[in-house]
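Progress report, Aim 2. The chain analyzed during this reporting quarter is listed below.
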Amino acid sequence: MAGTVEAPRVYRMPLIRPTIQGRRASVRAPMHALIAALLLAAPPEHDFSKVEIQTSKVAGSVWFLKGAGGNIAASVGEDGVAIIDDQFAPLSPKIHAALAKLSAKPVRFLINTHWHFDHTGGNALFSDPAAILAHENVRKRLIAGGNIFGMEIKPAPPPALPVVTFRDGLSLWWNGEEIRALAPGRGHTDGDLVVWFTKSNVVHFGDDFVTYGFPFVDLQSGGSVKGMIAALDVVLGQVPADAKVIPGHGEVSTIADVRKFRGALDEMVGVVKKGLAGGKSVEQLQKEHALAPWEPAWGGKDKFISAEAFIATIAQDLAAKK
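Predicted C-alpha coordinates for the chain:
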Protein backbone atom coordinates (compact mmCIF):
# COMPACT_ATOMS: atom_id res chain seq x y z
CA MET A 1 0.00 0.00 0.00
CA ALA A 2 1.41 3.39 -0.97
CA GLY A 3 2.46 5.81 1.75
CA THR A 4 1.42 9.44 1.80
CA VAL A 5 3.39 12.58 2.56
CA GLU A 6 1.33 15.71 3.05
CA ALA A 7 3.67 18.61 2.39
CA PRO A 8 2.99 20.86 5.39
CA ARG A 9 3.52 18.00 7.85
CA VAL A 10 6.76 16.44 6.62
CA TYR A 11 9.08 18.47 8.83
CA ARG A 12 7.10 17.59 11.95
CA MET A 13 7.28 13.83 11.53
CA PRO A 14 9.17 12.65 14.65
CA LEU A 15 11.04 9.79 12.96
CA ILE A 16 12.20 11.95 10.06
CA ARG A 17 13.09 15.22 11.74
CA PRO A 18 16.36 14.04 13.39
CA THR A 19 17.57 12.73 10.03
CA ILE A 20 16.76 15.99 8.29
CA GLN A 21 18.47 17.98 11.02
CA GLY A 22 21.55 15.79 10.75
CA ARG A 23 21.55 16.22 7.01
CA ARG A 24 21.34 19.98 7.26
CA ALA A 25 24.18 20.06 9.74
CA SER A 26 26.31 18.10 7.28
CA VAL A 27 25.51 20.27 4.31
CA ARG A 28 26.74 23.34 6.17
CA ALA A 29 30.22 21.87 6.21
CA PRO A 30 32.69 23.60 3.85
CA MET A 31 30.97 23.36 0.48
CA HIS A 32 34.18 23.34 -1.55
CA ALA A 33 35.14 19.99 -0.03
CA LEU A 34 31.69 18.57 -0.69
CA ILE A 35 31.64 19.77 -4.29
CA ALA A 36 35.10 18.34 -4.87
CA ALA A 37 33.90 14.95 -3.64
CA LEU A 38 30.80 15.07 -5.82
CA LEU A 39 32.78 16.00 -8.91
CA LEU A 40 34.56 12.66 -8.68
CA ALA A 41 31.29 11.01 -9.66
CA ALA A 42 30.91 13.08 -12.83
CA PRO A 43 32.21 11.61 -16.11
CA PRO A 44 35.51 13.36 -16.88
CA GLU A 45 34.69 13.79 -20.58
CA HIS A 46 31.81 16.15 -19.83
CA ASP A 47 32.45 19.87 -20.25
CA PHE A 48 29.69 21.17 -18.02
CA SER A 49 30.65 24.79 -18.65
CA LYS A 50 29.00 24.53 -22.08
CA VAL A 51 25.76 22.94 -20.86
CA GLU A 52 22.68 25.13 -20.84
CA ILE A 53 19.58 24.26 -18.85
CA GLN A 54 16.54 24.48 -21.10
CA THR A 55 13.11 24.89 -19.50
CA SER A 56 9.69 24.36 -21.04
CA LYS A 57 6.15 24.06 -19.70
CA VAL A 58 4.65 20.58 -20.06
CA ALA A 59 1.19 20.92 -18.52
CA GLY A 60 -0.50 22.15 -15.35
CA SER A 61 2.15 22.92 -12.75
CA VAL A 62 4.84 20.77 -14.38
CA TRP A 63 7.95 22.05 -16.15
CA PHE A 64 10.60 20.10 -18.05
CA LEU A 65 14.29 20.92 -17.51
CA LYS A 66 16.87 19.49 -19.90
CA GLY A 67 20.63 19.83 -19.57
CA ALA A 68 23.05 16.91 -19.33
CA GLY A 69 22.15 13.63 -17.69
CA GLY A 70 18.67 12.60 -16.69
CA ASN A 71 15.70 14.82 -17.41
CA ILE A 72 14.25 16.90 -14.60
CA ALA A 73 10.58 17.56 -13.92
CA ALA A 74 9.58 20.44 -11.65
CA SER A 75 6.28 21.12 -9.94
CA VAL A 76 6.01 24.91 -9.57
CA GLY A 77 3.19 26.66 -7.75
CA GLU A 78 1.87 28.29 -4.59
CA ASP A 79 3.46 25.71 -2.29
CA GLY A 80 6.88 26.16 -3.86
CA VAL A 81 8.99 23.82 -5.97
CA ALA A 82 9.38 20.05 -6.00
CA ILE A 83 11.71 18.41 -8.52
CA ILE A 84 12.27 14.95 -9.92
CA ASP A 85 16.02 14.14 -10.28
CA ASP A 86 18.87 16.67 -10.40
CA GLN A 87 21.48 15.61 -13.00
CA PHE A 88 25.23 16.11 -12.29
CA ALA A 89 26.64 18.02 -9.31
CA PRO A 90 28.52 20.64 -11.42
CA LEU A 91 25.21 21.65 -13.03
CA SER A 92 23.48 22.41 -9.73
CA PRO A 93 24.13 26.19 -9.83
CA LYS A 94 22.68 26.35 -13.35
CA ILE A 95 19.68 24.26 -12.35
CA HIS A 96 19.09 26.46 -9.31
CA ALA A 97 19.26 29.52 -11.55
CA ALA A 98 16.79 28.03 -14.04
CA LEU A 99 14.35 27.15 -11.26
CA ALA A 100 14.69 30.62 -9.75
CA LYS A 101 13.31 32.05 -13.00
CA LEU A 102 10.22 29.87 -12.57
CA SER A 103 9.65 30.60 -8.87
CA ALA A 104 11.11 32.74 -6.09
CA LYS A 105 10.28 29.93 -3.66
CA PRO A 106 12.81 27.24 -2.74
CA VAL A 107 12.94 23.59 -3.75
CA ARG A 108 11.27 21.82 -0.85
CA PHE A 109 11.18 18.25 -2.18
CA LEU A 110 13.42 16.19 -4.44
CA ILE A 111 12.40 12.74 -5.69
CA ASN A 112 15.08 10.44 -7.14
CA THR A 113 13.85 8.04 -9.84
CA HIS A 114 16.89 5.77 -9.21
CA TRP A 115 20.43 5.97 -7.86
CA HIS A 116 22.61 6.67 -10.94
CA PHE A 117 24.84 9.72 -10.72
CA ASP A 118 23.37 11.46 -13.77
CA HIS A 119 20.07 11.62 -11.85
CA THR A 120 21.30 12.07 -8.26
CA GLY A 121 24.62 13.90 -8.67
CA GLY A 122 23.21 17.17 -7.36
CA ASN A 123 21.42 15.70 -4.33
CA ALA A 124 23.65 17.24 -1.70
CA LEU A 125 23.48 20.66 -3.31
CA PHE A 126 19.67 20.63 -3.14
CA SER A 127 19.33 18.98 0.27
CA ASP A 128 19.06 22.24 2.19
CA PRO A 129 16.16 22.96 2.41
CA ALA A 130 14.80 20.15 0.20
CA ALA A 131 13.86 16.76 1.65
CA ILE A 132 15.04 13.93 -0.62
CA LEU A 133 12.59 11.09 -1.24
CA ALA A 134 13.43 7.79 -2.94
CA HIS A 135 12.92 4.04 -3.05
CA GLU A 136 14.71 2.36 -0.15
CA ASN A 137 17.17 0.67 -2.53
CA VAL A 138 18.33 4.08 -3.80
CA ARG A 139 19.57 5.02 -0.35
CA LYS A 140 21.23 1.61 0.06
CA ARG A 141 23.06 1.88 -3.26
CA LEU A 142 24.12 5.49 -2.72
CA ILE A 143 25.60 4.47 0.64
CA ALA A 144 27.41 1.47 -0.86
CA GLY A 145 28.57 3.00 -4.14
CA GLY A 146 29.21 0.67 -7.04
CA ASN A 147 30.47 0.27 -10.57
CA ILE A 148 28.83 1.51 -13.76
CA PHE A 149 30.48 0.89 -17.13
CA GLY A 150 33.77 0.20 -15.37
CA MET A 151 33.61 3.52 -13.52
CA GLU A 152 33.89 3.29 -9.74
CA ILE A 153 31.10 5.20 -8.02
CA LYS A 154 32.18 6.14 -4.51
CA PRO A 155 29.73 6.13 -1.60
CA ALA A 156 27.66 9.31 -1.50
CA PRO A 157 28.22 11.82 1.30
CA PRO A 158 25.48 12.02 3.97
CA PRO A 159 23.86 15.20 2.59
CA ALA A 160 23.20 13.40 -0.71
CA LEU A 161 21.19 10.59 0.87
CA PRO A 162 17.38 10.35 0.78
CA VAL A 163 15.81 11.11 4.17
CA VAL A 164 12.42 9.62 3.30
CA THR A 165 12.47 6.12 1.79
CA PHE A 166 9.74 3.65 0.94
CA ARG A 167 9.22 0.36 -0.87
CA ASP A 168 5.76 0.36 -2.42
CA GLY A 169 5.08 3.97 -3.38
CA LEU A 170 4.24 7.33 -1.89
CA SER A 171 1.93 10.31 -2.47
CA LEU A 172 3.10 13.90 -2.11
CA TRP A 173 0.33 16.49 -1.94
CA TRP A 174 1.87 19.58 -3.51
CA ASN A 175 0.78 22.56 -5.58
CA GLY A 176 -2.84 21.49 -5.62
CA GLU A 177 -2.38 17.93 -6.80
CA GLU A 178 -1.37 14.44 -5.75
CA ILE A 179 2.09 13.56 -7.01
CA ARG A 180 2.33 9.77 -6.95
CA ALA A 181 5.72 8.10 -6.80
CA LEU A 182 5.00 4.63 -8.19
CA ALA A 183 7.39 1.75 -7.47
CA PRO A 184 6.53 -0.69 -10.30
CA GLY A 185 9.33 -3.18 -9.60
CA ARG A 186 12.72 -4.07 -11.09
CA GLY A 187 13.45 -2.43 -14.42
CA HIS A 188 16.32 -0.07 -15.12
CA THR A 189 17.51 -0.84 -11.55
CA ASP A 190 15.95 -2.35 -8.43
CA GLY A 191 15.06 1.08 -7.03
CA ASP A 192 13.10 2.66 -9.86
CA LEU A 193 10.29 5.16 -9.41
CA VAL A 194 7.86 6.51 -11.97
CA VAL A 195 6.32 9.81 -10.89
CA TRP A 196 2.78 10.72 -11.91
CA PHE A 197 1.50 14.29 -11.53
CA THR A 198 -2.14 13.27 -11.38
CA LYS A 199 -3.88 16.61 -12.01
CA SER A 200 -1.34 17.99 -14.48
CA ASN A 201 -1.53 14.59 -16.24
CA VAL A 202 2.23 14.27 -16.68
CA VAL A 203 4.32 11.16 -15.99
CA HIS A 204 8.10 11.14 -15.42
CA PHE A 205 9.21 7.59 -16.26
CA GLY A 206 12.82 7.83 -15.11
CA ASP A 207 15.02 5.47 -17.11
CA ASP A 208 12.32 2.81 -17.41
CA PHE A 209 11.48 4.70 -20.62
CA VAL A 210 14.10 6.50 -22.74
CA THR A 211 14.20 7.65 -26.34
CA TYR A 212 17.93 7.34 -27.11
CA GLY A 213 17.70 3.80 -28.53
CA PHE A 214 18.43 0.43 -26.94
CA PRO A 215 18.03 1.07 -23.21
CA PHE A 216 20.71 0.62 -20.59
CA VAL A 217 19.44 -1.98 -18.12
CA ASP A 218 21.75 -2.04 -15.11
CA LEU A 219 21.80 -5.73 -14.18
CA GLN A 220 24.48 -5.10 -11.54
CA SER A 221 22.06 -2.75 -9.79
CA GLY A 222 19.26 -5.29 -9.78
CA GLY A 223 17.80 -4.26 -13.13
CA SER A 224 16.04 -6.61 -15.53
CA VAL A 225 14.83 -6.37 -19.12
CA LYS A 226 11.95 -8.70 -18.35
CA GLY A 227 11.31 -6.69 -15.22
CA MET A 228 11.28 -3.43 -17.19
CA ILE A 229 8.54 -4.81 -19.44
CA ALA A 230 6.52 -5.85 -16.38
CA ALA A 231 7.13 -2.48 -14.70
CA LEU A 232 5.91 -0.62 -17.76
CA ASP A 233 2.77 -2.77 -17.74
CA VAL A 234 2.15 -1.79 -14.12
CA VAL A 235 2.41 1.92 -14.91
CA LEU A 236 0.50 1.75 -18.19
CA GLY A 237 -2.32 0.07 -16.32
CA GLN A 238 -2.69 3.11 -14.06
CA VAL A 239 -1.95 6.32 -15.97
CA PRO A 240 -4.31 7.95 -18.51
CA ALA A 241 -3.76 7.28 -22.20
CA ASP A 242 -3.53 11.02 -22.91
CA ALA A 243 -0.88 11.77 -20.28
CA LYS A 244 2.23 13.61 -21.37
CA VAL A 245 5.46 11.72 -20.78
CA ILE A 246 8.88 12.90 -19.62
CA PRO A 247 11.39 10.12 -20.37
CA GLY A 248 14.54 9.60 -18.34
CA HIS A 249 16.44 10.81 -21.40
CA GLY A 250 14.99 12.38 -24.51
CA GLU A 251 12.16 14.71 -25.45
CA VAL A 252 8.62 14.92 -24.10
CA SER A 253 6.69 11.94 -25.45
CA THR A 254 3.30 10.23 -25.29
CA ILE A 255 1.84 7.12 -23.68
CA ALA A 256 1.61 5.68 -27.20
CA ASP A 257 5.40 6.06 -27.46
CA VAL A 258 5.81 4.18 -24.18
CA ARG A 259 3.56 1.36 -25.40
CA LYS A 260 5.57 1.10 -28.61
CA PHE A 261 8.81 0.99 -26.59
CA ARG A 262 7.37 -1.72 -24.32
CA GLY A 263 6.21 -3.78 -27.30
CA ALA A 264 9.61 -3.59 -28.97
CA LEU A 265 11.34 -4.74 -25.78
CA ASP A 266 9.02 -7.72 -25.55
CA GLU A 267 9.68 -8.66 -29.19
CA MET A 268 13.46 -8.36 -28.76
CA VAL A 269 13.43 -10.55 -25.67
CA GLY A 270 11.43 -13.10 -27.67
CA VAL A 271 13.97 -13.12 -30.51
CA VAL A 272 16.93 -13.65 -28.18
CA LYS A 273 15.08 -16.26 -26.13
CA LYS A 274 14.16 -18.23 -29.25
CA GLY A 275 17.73 -18.08 -30.56
CA LEU A 276 19.20 -19.32 -27.28
CA ALA A 277 16.60 -22.09 -27.03
CA GLY A 278 17.61 -23.16 -30.54
CA GLY A 279 21.18 -23.72 -29.39
CA LYS A 280 22.74 -20.50 -30.60
CA SER A 281 25.30 -18.69 -28.48
CA VAL A 282 25.23 -15.01 -27.60
CA GLU A 283 28.14 -14.49 -30.00
CA GLN A 284 26.22 -16.13 -32.84
CA LEU A 285 23.18 -13.96 -32.21
CA GLN A 286 25.41 -10.90 -32.26
CA LYS A 287 27.15 -11.91 -35.49
CA GLU A 288 23.81 -12.69 -37.10
CA HIS A 289 22.48 -9.26 -36.04
CA ALA A 290 19.49 -10.80 -34.32
CA LEU A 291 18.13 -7.34 -33.49
CA ALA A 292 18.57 -6.00 -37.03
CA PRO A 293 14.87 -5.06 -37.40
CA TRP A 294 15.29 -2.53 -34.60
CA GLU A 295 18.78 -1.25 -35.38
CA PRO A 296 17.78 1.52 -37.83
CA ALA A 297 15.76 3.29 -35.14
CA TRP A 298 17.43 2.02 -31.97
CA GLY A 299 21.07 1.35 -32.86
CA GLY A 300 23.97 2.85 -34.78
CA LYS A 301 27.51 3.84 -33.89
CA ASP A 302 26.37 7.08 -32.28
CA LYS A 303 23.97 5.33 -29.91
CA PHE A 304 24.65 4.83 -26.20
CA ILE A 305 23.92 1.08 -26.20
CA SER A 306 24.75 -1.09 -29.23
CA ALA A 307 22.57 -3.92 -30.49
CA GLU A 308 25.34 -6.38 -29.57
CA ALA A 309 25.47 -5.08 -26.01
CA PHE A 310 21.70 -5.27 -25.65
CA ILE A 311 21.65 -8.87 -26.92
CA ALA A 312 24.18 -9.75 -24.22
CA THR A 313 22.10 -7.93 -21.58
CA ILE A 314 18.93 -9.79 -22.57
CA ALA A 315 20.74 -13.14 -22.59
CA GLN A 316 22.27 -12.50 -19.17
CA ASP A 317 18.89 -11.48 -17.80
CA LEU A 318 17.23 -14.60 -19.23
CA ALA A 319 19.91 -16.79 -17.67
CA ALA A 320 19.64 -15.20 -14.22
CA LYS A 321 18.23 -17.33 -11.41
CA LYS A 322 14.80 -16.26 -10.27
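The chain has eleven helices and 16 strands. The chain has a mean pLDDT of 88. These observations will guide the mutagenesis work planned for the next reporting period.
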